[in-house]
Amino acid sequence: MIINPPTTPTFDSLEQALKHFFGYDSFRPGQKPIIQAALDDRDLLVIMPTGGGKSLCFQLPALLSSGITIVVSPLIALMQDQVEALRDNGIGATFLNSTLNSMEVRQRAIRILDGEIKLLYVAPERLLTEQFLTFLTQINDRLGIARIAIDEAHCLSEWGHDFRPEYRQLLDLRQYYPSVPFLALTATATERVRQDIIQQLDLRQPIVHVASFNRQNLYYEVRPKQKQSYTELLNIIRQTSGSGIVYCLSRKRVDEITYRLQQDGVEALPYHAGMEDRDRAKNQNRFIRDDVRVMVATIAFGMGINKPDVRFVIHYDLPRNLEGYYQESGRAGRDGELARCILFFSYSDVKTVEFLISQKLDPVTNDPLEEEQRIASQQLRRVIDYAEANECRRTIQLSYFGETFAGSCHNCDNCKHPKPAEDWTIEAQKFLSCVARCKERFGMKYIIDVLRGSKEKRILANQHDQLSTYGIGKDHTADEWKGLGRSLLHQGLLDETSDGYGVLKLNPLSWEVLRKQRSVAIALPNRSTAENLTSDRSKANVELLLDRLRSLRKQIADEQSVPPYVVFPDGSLRQMAEEQPHTLDAFSEISGVGSYKLAQYGTRFLEAIRQFCGEDASSPQAALDPTSIALPHPKPLLSKTHFFTLELHQRGLTPDAIAEKRNLSLGTVIEHLVLLVEADRAVTLDSLVPPERQAQIQQAIQSVGADSLRTIRDRLGESFDYSEIRLVRAKWRHE
Ligand code: ADP
Ligand code: ZN
User: Which numbered atom of ligand 1 lies nearest the CA of 57?
Assistant: First the structure.
């Protein structure tokens, strides 16, 4: 018998429910269809990269369904974290795991059976104990089980990187509760693991959702590592606000860099396997709570921690493989806000990693583990490829996961400072036909040797000096050919086996090139200039307010002993600093401000913003004249979309590029810029309209007035377009 059926609030739309419970304005890609399918009681397998927003996919359905949602989660820290974040949104959530004593467990059980809880997090090893199964029956009888969500579902596959035998028993649950839908989630991409999850959980006609692994908010950059690199590291840390991680290869290096950073006044702490568990946990906690800004760590750090507002991840030493690099750098920007991922690359690091690989020995016989060594070397080559590449870094990373990414991402060093591209179609045809003539049985180096007419024994023995492609590539250096070969791989125009031998194989696209149906362009090396960050007064202003809001957030977080991002994520603070809302109504429009947080924190944050604006005369909202306090100058209403355009504009993108990147029309982008100019935001008008044209337009406005665009245009003539006129008129109006 079900007593006390929990009342489920009703909403007109899922968006409304999202705003009510979590304060977000829109869904991330994939979330909505997943949530809809979950509400239709379908079995689901969700594959999304870290930071994609998996949790919401089971949290929102839990709040919109009657009964309790059971969440299986392997990582205790993560579990506690999610529960804290949910509670801070006023949502009934709790967990049961080995950190609780029996008294606490009993108390929680009572609250659960009283119907106060919508989400119950459980560790897998507890789930199938007799005691818990009895409890689960009670829950089911009284309240009903809405669905079972299995987080980090790759743990049940031996093919994943984190196999946990206790996950295998989850199949029993399916048998106990055949009618309860299952929702499995993971960030691991391989097909093998996917199939395993479906099988092991006996998912029934599951909807499989695979999200893109592209994390557009992450800026990727590779810098050469030199003697002065420590100074560069220090500068990056000083210039970037917010938290960050510096990854190093060894414990010794972690200690050394931490020490130097501390000496230079950066709040940094170390994290590596040589430390006591307790100290490690302590440092990690201080990082999560923003007591310390930088964590210097070996790669062990970061797994299973949920800090969404990491603003930079710097690899000071070389990562060993590209998947690892993707996962580690992916710990930045999980909140979807901009973050930087920088890799320092040197050949002496390559030598170090090569040495480590050569040390992979069988623990019993001490013989080299040849297969493992071979695969590790191939993986290392992919990292070197990535670092040396002249093309889009994102394209290369995604190609590693079998995903093709077309064109330029506008958010990596190579896209921002593109090297000139050259047509290498003929060379590509030579290269690919050499692969074909060698019967697709050799790797890159061999093919290049044949092309360049090498007299190497192996080539002569194979009689490959007889091939028509032998020696036809003497006009280019081996390095140039290598650049082409890699580029073909990254662009998906050629394949390579991943057994450690790297044998080149043709694919359908290679044949298109060979049949002259497709041309090939490659980027040529040319060292880029350093990234140029614009800064001006209004930007400094926003940063200043942002700093204040951060300390207020920290203060509130400490009062409640929760991590600061639980109070508000970075993105919300930034939006507050940019939009500077002055009323509770305006404040509730900020992304991340739901009804609960509005009531909880609204006034304190508003007070801080008002105070800041009052004392800062350069702020657009500042009271220049005491009588204007009550009636501030009407300011165009700007929303997030305008600020996103502004951000891209400040990073040097042209309106066309912004339109393309944001998938908006050029007209919309111009509209944004016009509003931004009117609101006196830091738009560099000179980069949009040359100064001499601005002067002409201003003159026209002065003589015919600003009201009619057409009249101004008639005055100026056909060579002027409406966009330029609108931008200049906006400035004129503002002034
Ligand atoms: P994952 O588990 O996939 O790594 P999370 O569920 O932890 O990702 O989500 C990452 C971050 O994104 C969290 O801080 C979360 O609050 C935030 N987030 C999730 N969905 C949205 C959304 N629709 N709008 C804004 N932020 C979101
Ligand atoms: Zn790019």
Answer: 6
Question: Domain for residue 698, yes or no?
Answer: yes
| Gap between the Cα atoms of 471 and 443, Å rounded | 17
Q: H-helix or E-strand containing 312? A: strand 310-315
Mean pLDDT of the chain: 85
CATH of the domain at 711: 1.10.10.1390
Within a domain: residue 3?
no
Greatest mean pLDDT range, 353-362, 368-377, 458-467, 613-622: 458-467
Give 644-656 pLDDT, tens digit per residue: 788 888 888 899 9
Domain count, the chain: 5
Q: What is the whole-number distance in angstroms between the Cα of residue 393 and the centre of ligand 2? A: 5
Residue 535 lies in a domain: no
The CATH number for 598's domain is 1.10.150.80
Domain end position, chosen among 488, 523, 558:
523
- CA angle 49/51/56 to nearest 5° reads 100
Q: Which atom of ligand 1 is nearest to the CA of 50?
A: 4
Instruction: Identify which has the larger pLDDT, 316 or 157.
Output: 316
Q: Which DSSP helix (H) or strand (E) runs through 395? A: helix 393-400
Strand ranges (DSSP E) for 41-136? 44-47, 68-72, 93-96, 119-122
Q: Which domain range does residue 650 map to? A: 640-734
> Would the CB of 67 count as within 6 Å of ligand 1?
no
Going by C-alpha positions, the residue among 591, 608, 381 that lies closest to residue 497 is: 381
- In one-letter notation, the amino acid at residue 349 is D
Q: Which ligand is nearest to the CA of 58?
A: 1
- Residue 631 in any domain: the answer is no
Ligand 1 within 6 A of CB of 336? yes
